Amino acid sequence: MKLLGRGVTVMAAAVGLVLGPASLAAADTPSGPPGQPSNVFVQTNDLAGNQVIVFAEQPNGQLSQERVVSTGGLGGASASATNLASEGSLTYDPEHHLLFAVNAGSDTISVLSVDGGNVRLDQVLSSGGEFPNSIAVHGNLVYVVNAGGAGSVSGFYIFGQAVVPIPGSTRSLGLDNANPPGIHTSPGQVGFSPDGSELVVTTKESSINSIDVFRVGPLGLLSTAPTFNPDDSNGPFAFAWTPSGQLVVAQVETNSLQTFSLGPAGTLTSLSASVPDGQSALCWVIAAGGFYYAANAGSGNLSSYTIAADGVPSVVSPVAATTGAGQIDPTASANGRYLYAESGAGGGTVFEFQINSDGSLSPIGSVTGLGANMEGIAAD
Known about the structure:
The strands form seven sheets. Strands 8, 9, 10, 11 and 12 form a five-stranded antiparallel β-sheet that branches. Strands 17, 18, 19, 20 and 21 form a five-stranded antiparallel β-sheet that branches. This protein has one helix at residues 6-24, and strands spanning 39-43, 51-57, 63-70, 90-93, 98-103, 108-115, 118-126, 132-138, 141-146, 152-159, 162-165, 171-172, 189-192, 198-202, 210-215, 227-230, 236-241, 247-251, 256-262, 268-270, 275-276, 282-288, 291-296, 301-307, 313-322, 327-332, 338-343, 349-355, 361-367, 377-379. It has a single domain (38-379), classed as Methylamine Dehydrogenase, Chain H, CATH 2.130.10. The protein is mainly beta. The protein contains one helix and 30 strands. β5 and β6 (108-115) form a beta hairpin.
């Protein structure tokens, strides 16, 4: 594990001055050509010691466990739930081949380097707040959202293979949460806009119940306060982006997807009404193969959508696949051929699916016994 002192932090800030905003907001790129197998990473979120389980994706899409790596921190549990209730708690950065994990029980984040199937813990850093539950990466910038208490976001620079805090980067979300927060009031996700100029945070059914947008400055520092975009009582949870930069938001209270355009001042303009899938507790959403897959925690299944060019969502299948009780975070392989979905069923299960050209999902297997607190999944 690398221990970084103040000098490295100052050096990284100086590098940020030289690189400027273009380098700090470099576009994310795929990690490999179509057809190249992925690794899939699963976070145990174990309260006694968080771990990342590394799986190799086989040619048929099934997963084989390769190794287990400690994150050097503790998993966490939201009030009245056994997991984090967020998307992006485990995030892979293909540009730097780094894996970021939250340790909600010890208020830290872990940085792991990935070299093929080899994964190594490099750093454990303070998250800058209470109960970190989601991480976003864009270019040389990393931001984590802390869900406990007033809530906050804190930033880091990637400097080579080292990650260092950005001085003065923490911004309050102005929430009124306990620590640990409730599953309905904790922020659902933090993520950068496609060009890296804004940072988006969903606050679910908190006292604000909004989608917050911070402006990202040239040195990676955020605007002092975000633009608050109220989302009525829809409970904005996770989100994804269309290829044209439209924001696709999963709304847990209405079991629906809704799309927005993002304005230059951080204002969101609705492009559609909320489109429900008829299921229960639609919380997570990911884009894969031209489709959008929503995870329904209450129904124990996945639904599929398309998004038209004008941003209007349409349900393709209200039940594209069944996963069992407690459906949580999904991810797709880098080659776009397979989808992997976490579920609380079977003491912690990852269900494996082939993504078909019409958006349907064909079951190809599962991995069970991964831990009741499991949450967080990513592919390289």
